[in-house]
Amino acid sequence: MRKREHLSQIKLSDSQREKLKDEIKAFYLDARGEEIGMIEQIQLLELFEEKMAPIIYNRALEDAKRWFGQIMDNAESDFYGLYKNEG
What we know:
The chain is mainly alpha-helical. The chain contains two helices and no strands. Helix 1 packs across helix 2. The relative contact order is 0.08. The mean pLDDT is 88.
């Protein structure tokens, strides 16, 4: 059996990082009317990756687990619906 890799940190692609830095820059401009520099964009993105991403990721896993559980409950009741009366 293959050993599962542990996800110690969420890794973003370069294009994802660029898009998020643009979003941070746009947010500061829209919400605060301030320009934010490249260093600040990177620092905020790294903060989000380190502190917020694991929380959001874990929540998504819990949501997927709950959804899968509901699907399996439905499958089980559908399975028993296939039984025929033996009488």
